[in-house]
Design brief:
mainly alpha; 70% helix
Length: 407
């Protein structure tokens, strides 16, 4: 009897040890992959590729004005010049679809140069993420924030030099303020999601339908503030150019790279390789509408049952799945509600572990398979390595949406 009690006591510890070993292995994979990429891929073509665009945009803004940031011809010229020391080939131009108010912060990094700026940007992201994730977890469990920190979306955020740390914090503080019944304050934080407006496509309709006027008032103030500052910086011409650039993201802008998106747009592109295009995109459109509608219905039903901010996780999961522009790294916005639900016992830790580990495992298997096929001189599937973890995340997010709606 005593032996059984000891085994029951030790089992969770062994589980924690296995998880720590798995996290160590995942960390080693990230480090080795980053080092390999640094030595085998053109500099700024993968590592820091998005930061390169942010840096170029800040440079353009300080020399030619914020309105020129959204001119792709100017971006091409500047990014080509920045890449001249590293390559003589044509550079894939990465646009910056941020409002001028969000580009301002990158101007502070210009004196450090692109390399120095990227190093500081990465260190700031690592430090802020580490502190904030432990704060979200309440300081009671060190394993949960570590799992979140090593998730594939956050790794890509650091690798590419993305800005999703800001989105993660804004979602977390929006959630925390809502739960403390500080609606206006919550809405102000929600305004931070204007950095990537596609994150709001389902959340704003829910707030309107639930008549959360205090939250919407805070959001309106934040939007007005961001709009006034952006208008002052770029003028009407600049905001018009920003709007036109956003519409180009709806088309086939090369730099958007749909194959690396964890959404139904990626699935439509994949299906179109196997089936007639009209059929593939018809199925994709139907799934998009169905998942969005299910998320809205499930959220409104759960809110009537008094689930506080628990609606946020499935709603943001659906947002990542249905938004037209939703890369793998944007899934970082799910981390605050996921950690919150984990700490109060409303979300399965096993499911969270799978969300963390399966995408990098899929990516590792994909790049290993591609490497072997290359060595064996066999045909390689017309899919980049990032498509495979994107499929995994899309499946997860669709599952979270359906699971929540049917509860």
């Amino acid at each position: 009897m005593m032996l059984k009690e000891q085994q029951r006591t030790l089992d969770p510890l062994c589980s924690e040890k296995r998880l720590c070993l798995a996290l160590l292995a995942l960390s080693v994979f990230y480090v080795l992959f980053t080092i390999w990429t640094a030595f085998h891929v053109t500099r700024w073509a993968v590592i820091g590729v998005d930061f390169r665009a942010f840096f170029a945009s800040a440079w353009i803004a300080t020399r030619f004005g914020f309105a020129r940031v959204y001119d792709l011809d100017v971006q091409r010229e500047v990014q080509q010049a920045l890449m001249a020391p590293y390559t003589t080939g044509e550079v894939n131009v990465i646009p910056t679809p941020f409002l001028p108010v969000f580009i301002c912060s990158f101007t502070l990094l210009l004196p450090l140069g692109m390399s120095g700026g990227f190093i500081l940007w990465t260190l700031l992201n690592i430090g802020i993420l580490a502190v904030y994730l432990f704060r979200l977890a309440g300081g009671r469990n060190r394993l949960l924030p570590t799992l979140a920190f090593l998730s594939f979306p956050l790794y890509l955020n650091l690798l590419l030099g993305q800005a999703n740390t800001w989105l993660l914090i804004c979602v977390g503080e929006f959630m925390r303020a809502w739960e403390r019944d500080k609606g206006f304050h919550s809405g102000l934080w929600l305004g931070g999601l204007l950095l990537k407006p596609q994150t709001l496509i389902l959340l704003l309709p829910v707030l309107f339908l639930k008549k959360k006027w205090d939250i919407l008032a805070g959001f309106a103030v934040a939007t007005l503030g961001a709009g006034v500052i952006s208008l002052t910086l770029a003028g009407p011409e600049g905001l018009t150019a920003w709007g036109k650039l956003l519409t180009r993201y709806m088309g086939n802008l090369t730099a958007t790279d749909p194959a690396a998106m964890a959404n139904f747009r990626m699935l439509g592109g994949l299906l179109s390789l196997l089936f007639p295009s009209s059929w593939a995109w018809g199925v994709t459109g139907g799934l998009t509408v169905a998942v969005a509608a299910l998320a809205l219905w499930g959220t409104l039903r759960r809110q009537r049952a008094g689930y506080d901010s628990a609606f946020l996780l499935p709603l943001l999961a659906a947002t990542c799945a249905v938004a037209w522009h939703s890369h793998l790294h944007m899934a970082a916005i799910l981390i605050p509600p996921m950690l919150r639900q984990l700490t109060i016992g409303r979300f399965s830790r096993s499911l969270f572990v799978l969300w963390v580990f399966l995408p990098p495992i899929a990516y590792f298997l994909a790049i290993t398979g591609i490497a072997l096929l290359t060595v064996l001189k066999r045909p390689i599937p017309p899919l980049p390595g990032f498509t495979y973890p994107a499929i995994v995340l899309l499946g997860f997010h669709a599952y979270l949406t359906v699971r929540a709606a049917l509860k």
